[in-house]
Amino acid sequence: MLRSFLKLFIAFTILSMGIACSTDTEDDSLLAGEDFTGTNIRVLSIDTFSVKLSTMKFDSITTSTNDRLLVGNYQDDTMGTLNAATYVQMTPTSYYLDNDATLDSITLVLGYDSYYYNDTTQVATVNVHKLTEKMTSDDDYFYNTTVTPYETEVLKTLSYYPTPNKDSLVVTLPYDFGEELFNGIRDNDITDEESLYQKLKGLTVQPGTNDNGAVIGFSTATSSSYLRFYYTIPDELETDEYTYDMTINSYYNKINSDVTGLPLEAITDQEDNLESSDSNHITYNQCGTGYVTKIEFPSIKNLFNIGSDGTILDAVLYIEPNSTAHTDIQPLSETLLLYTIDQNNDLASQVSNSVDVVTAGITDENTEFNELTYTVPVIDFIDQKLNESPETEDALILIPTDYNSTVNKIIFNDSERSEYKTKLIITYAVYE
User: Which segment of the chain is annotated as a signal peptide (predicted)?
Assistant: First the structure.
């Protein structure tokens, strides 16, 4: 969760100066209740509230519920080295094979689901290992930080060029590995999940630690990713080849990043906040790893200094992504969801209004120069902050809908770096 301070130390002199832009009107369309009837109304557009940005990091996020396996490794100038590995447990639909069945070969098939992030033109490596313990969790979920030990010896290494819009990646595994499992099922030594796990607790697919390419998404669907045994029954008049599959019944993605030497290195606990002023006036969001930008409005209560009764008509946050940090192979998320976090940086709730959940979208200000901003409707949150009792220290965060199943990043500019394109604008109706 990206932390950065947007300090706009502009005196809140609404009465003595025409703040941003203000107009006088008696238009009944601006009425916000019966109290406005028969009154003079001034509408103020105020953009002088301070916007404080910082980066925080969730201790862990779930990565076992979005039907995607992630594998890859790459280096990023702003976010460090990112590594994504997947862990799976597999079971067959039945524990039966013909008594005369003979194994021919075994493959691990990983079906692309079209997702990728970063450079797919570089050679990638997958290393398949056997787990030494079953995947376990204290609840019903696995997380990006879950640790499951695996054999140091590699079962199979394969180098390949990712083709995420194609069918699948096929990894041929050692014959003796497949034969032990195949014969165990055929000979009724493996008859259920527990006896299977005595022989195969699961597999992990690790990327090459020296890779600098892309993170690739693979589907968990039974028709897309599976362990396939090819076999024949020699005594048949026609020797047909048959297949026997084990499919994924549980999985998770372990995702971490090495931020040594970067400002993010200062974040060691979920309650830590890295202010934008301490990170070159930018803040960080990264799916999968837990980084997110924290947004606060420390001067919002100055609205009471106007000294007259009034009503907020609108409140919009504009926040600028850093144009140099995003490319065709590292695209921006087009839609972000708005959540609140409490004083300990624990997730509190999703922000919604009377119609739906609140989302932020990209606005093109100047496509020629790649000047973009996210437009975030925050009137519900601002209303809450102005009326809450007792006062709280909750804040806003923005995360993509696929925060748990991708590794996309967003780098935000604070108000100083964005030349005050990152700002909060409140439309306020004052009546007497």
Answer: 1-22
